[in-house]
Protein backbone atom coordinates (compact mmCIF):
# COMPACT_ATOMS: atom_id res chain seq x y z
CA UNK A 1 0.00 0.00 0.00
CA UNK A 2 1.33 3.41 -1.01
CA UNK A 3 -0.37 6.72 -0.28
CA UNK A 4 0.09 8.74 -3.47
CA UNK A 5 -1.83 11.80 -2.27
CA UNK A 6 -2.77 13.03 1.21
CA UNK A 7 -5.04 16.06 1.36
CA UNK A 8 -7.07 17.75 4.06
CA UNK A 9 -10.24 15.84 3.16
CA UNK A 10 -9.10 12.74 1.31
CA UNK A 11 -6.25 10.40 0.51
CA UNK A 12 -5.50 8.36 -2.60
CA UNK A 13 -3.87 4.98 -2.26
CA UNK A 14 -2.13 2.69 -4.73
CA UNK A 15 -2.65 -0.90 -3.60
CA UNK A 16 -1.91 -4.35 -4.99
CA UNK A 17 -4.83 -6.66 -4.31
CA UNK A 18 -5.53 -10.37 -4.70
CA UNK A 19 -8.77 -10.88 -6.59
CA UNK A 20 -11.18 -13.75 -5.76
CA UNK A 21 -10.21 -15.41 -9.07
CA UNK A 22 -6.57 -15.67 -7.94
CA UNK A 23 -5.22 -12.83 -10.06
CA UNK A 24 -3.32 -9.84 -8.66
CA UNK A 25 -4.11 -6.30 -9.68
CA UNK A 26 -2.76 -2.85 -8.92
CA UNK A 27 -5.60 -0.47 -8.12
CA UNK A 28 -6.23 3.08 -6.95
CA UNK A 29 -8.56 3.60 -3.98
CA UNK A 30 -9.85 7.01 -2.92
CA UNK A 31 -10.52 7.45 0.82
CA UNK A 32 -12.65 10.59 1.27
CA UNK A 33 -13.77 9.93 4.86
CA UNK A 34 -17.33 9.68 6.14
CA UNK A 35 -20.16 11.86 4.92
CA UNK A 36 -23.88 12.46 5.35
CA UNK A 37 -26.81 13.62 3.23
CA UNK A 38 -30.23 14.76 4.40
CA UNK A 39 -33.64 15.24 2.86
CA UNK A 40 -35.23 18.07 4.87
CA UNK A 41 -39.01 17.60 4.76
CA UNK A 42 -41.85 19.91 5.71
CA UNK A 43 -45.16 18.10 5.20
CA UNK A 44 -45.43 17.25 1.50
CA UNK A 45 -42.55 19.59 0.63
CA UNK A 46 -38.80 19.15 0.80
CA UNK A 47 -35.79 21.43 0.64
CA UNK A 48 -33.11 20.85 -1.95
CA UNK A 49 -30.17 23.00 -2.81
CA UNK A 50 -29.12 24.25 -6.21
CA UNK A 51 -25.36 24.26 -5.96
CA UNK A 52 -22.50 25.13 -8.26
CA UNK A 53 -20.18 22.14 -8.67
CA UNK A 54 -16.78 22.98 -10.19
CA UNK A 55 -16.13 19.34 -11.18
CA UNK A 56 -19.01 19.49 -13.67
CA UNK A 57 -18.80 23.20 -14.38
CA UNK A 58 -22.38 24.00 -13.49
CA UNK A 59 -25.29 23.90 -11.09
CA UNK A 60 -27.18 20.80 -9.96
CA UNK A 61 -30.11 20.17 -7.65
CA UNK A 62 -29.17 18.04 -4.70
CA UNK A 63 -29.89 17.19 -1.10
CA UNK A 64 -27.76 19.03 1.44
CA UNK A 65 -24.74 16.98 2.44
CA UNK A 66 -21.33 17.23 4.02
CA UNK A 67 -18.20 15.58 5.30
CA UNK A 68 -17.83 14.35 8.86
CA UNK A 69 -15.21 16.27 10.82
CA UNK A 70 -12.74 14.31 12.99
CA UNK A 71 -14.51 13.03 16.10
CA UNK A 72 -17.94 13.92 14.72
CA UNK A 73 -20.70 11.32 14.37
CA UNK A 74 -23.12 11.17 11.41
CA UNK A 75 -26.06 12.77 13.27
CA UNK A 76 -23.90 15.63 14.52
CA UNK A 77 -22.63 16.21 10.98
CA UNK A 78 -26.18 16.10 9.60
CA UNK A 79 -27.33 18.72 12.13
CA UNK A 80 -24.38 21.00 11.37
CA UNK A 81 -24.69 20.72 7.59
CA UNK A 82 -28.46 21.30 7.71
CA UNK A 83 -27.82 24.62 9.43
CA UNK A 84 -24.92 25.57 7.10
CA UNK A 85 -26.63 24.71 3.82
CA UNK A 86 -30.39 25.08 4.40
CA UNK A 87 -30.47 27.39 7.44
CA UNK A 88 -32.72 24.93 9.29
CA UNK A 89 -32.60 22.81 12.42
CA UNK A 90 -34.30 19.45 12.68
CA UNK A 91 -35.89 18.03 15.81
CA UNK A 92 -36.09 14.61 14.15
CA UNK A 93 -33.27 13.09 12.13
CA UNK A 94 -34.56 9.76 10.87
CA UNK A 95 -31.83 7.35 9.70
CA UNK A 96 -32.46 6.06 6.15
CA UNK A 97 -29.47 3.75 5.88
CA UNK A 98 -26.20 4.16 4.03
CA UNK A 99 -25.05 4.05 0.43
CA UNK A 100 -21.66 3.51 -1.15
CA UNK A 101 -21.23 6.36 -3.59
CA UNK A 102 -18.97 4.73 -6.17
CA UNK A 103 -17.44 1.44 -4.94
CA UNK A 104 -15.47 0.96 -8.15
CA UNK A 105 -12.79 3.34 -6.88
CA UNK A 106 -13.75 4.71 -3.44
CA UNK A 107 -14.67 3.33 -0.01
CA UNK A 108 -16.89 6.34 0.76
CA UNK A 109 -19.95 5.55 2.87
CA UNK A 110 -22.71 8.15 2.92
CA UNK A 111 -25.15 8.14 5.86
CA UNK A 112 -28.67 9.12 4.79
CA UNK A 113 -31.20 10.99 6.95
CA UNK A 114 -34.68 12.37 6.60
CA UNK A 115 -34.93 15.63 8.55
CA UNK A 116 -38.37 16.49 9.98
CA UNK A 117 -39.84 19.10 12.34
CA UNK A 118 -37.74 21.87 10.90
CA UNK A 119 -37.24 25.30 12.44
CA UNK A 120 -35.27 28.25 11.06
CA UNK A 121 -31.67 28.67 12.22
CA UNK A 122 -30.29 32.19 12.30
CA UNK A 123 -26.79 31.16 13.41
CA UNK A 124 -25.72 29.60 10.13
CA UNK A 125 -22.19 30.01 8.84
CA UNK A 126 -21.94 28.92 5.20
CA UNK A 127 -18.65 27.66 3.79
CA UNK A 128 -16.79 30.28 1.74
CA UNK A 129 -16.41 28.01 -1.28
CA UNK A 130 -20.08 27.01 -1.62
CA UNK A 131 -22.50 28.74 -3.97
CA UNK A 132 -25.91 27.51 -2.83
CA UNK A 133 -29.54 28.45 -3.42
CA UNK A 134 -32.15 26.78 -1.18
CA UNK A 135 -35.20 25.52 -3.09
CA UNK A 136 -38.45 24.37 -1.47
CA UNK A 137 -40.49 22.07 -3.72
CA UNK A 138 -43.07 19.35 -3.33
CA UNK A 139 -41.72 15.85 -2.84
CA UNK A 140 -43.84 14.80 -5.81
CA UNK A 141 -42.08 17.38 -8.00
CA UNK A 142 -38.66 16.33 -6.65
CA UNK A 143 -39.43 12.72 -7.57
CA UNK A 144 -40.55 13.84 -11.04
CA UNK A 145 -37.26 15.77 -11.40
CA UNK A 146 -35.31 12.62 -10.50
CA UNK A 147 -37.38 10.60 -12.95
CA UNK A 148 -36.96 12.98 -15.90
CA UNK A 149 -33.29 13.79 -15.35
CA UNK A 150 -33.43 17.29 -13.84
CA UNK A 151 -31.98 15.74 -10.67
CA UNK A 152 -28.89 13.72 -11.58
CA UNK A 153 -27.19 13.54 -8.18
CA UNK A 154 -27.08 9.92 -6.94
CA UNK A 155 -27.33 10.69 -3.22
CA UNK A 156 -30.42 12.81 -3.81
CA UNK A 157 -32.11 10.15 -5.93
CA UNK A 158 -31.29 7.57 -3.23
CA UNK A 159 -32.75 9.80 -0.51
CA UNK A 160 -35.95 10.46 -2.47
CA UNK A 161 -36.39 6.71 -2.84
CA UNK A 162 -35.48 5.86 0.77
CA UNK A 163 -37.73 8.60 2.22
CA UNK A 164 -40.85 7.67 0.27
CA UNK A 165 -43.81 7.35 2.57
CA UNK A 166 -45.55 4.01 2.63
CA UNK A 167 -49.09 4.28 1.28
CA UNK A 168 -51.42 1.55 2.49
**Shape label:** globular
CATH architecture heading of the largest domain = Alpha-Beta Complex
SS elements, strand count: 10
**From the helix content, strand content and strand pairing, which structural class follows?**
alpha+beta
Average predicted confidence as pLDDT: 93
The residue ranges in which pLDDT falls below 50 over 5 or more consecutive positions are: none
Report on the biggest sheet: 7 strands, mixed
Structure, explained:
The chain has helices spanning 74-86, 139-148, 154-162; strands spanning 2-6, 11-18, 24-31, 35-42, 45-53, 58-62, 65-67, 88-100, 109-120, 132-138. With 168 residues, the protein is α+β, with helices and mostly antiparallel strands. It has two domains: 1-31, no CATH class; 33-162, Nucleoside Triphosphate Pyrophosphohydrolase. Strands 4, 5, 6, 7, 8, 9 and 10 form a seven-stranded mixed beta sheet that branches. A hairpin with a 4-residue loop joins strand 1 and strand 2 (11-18). The termini are far apart.
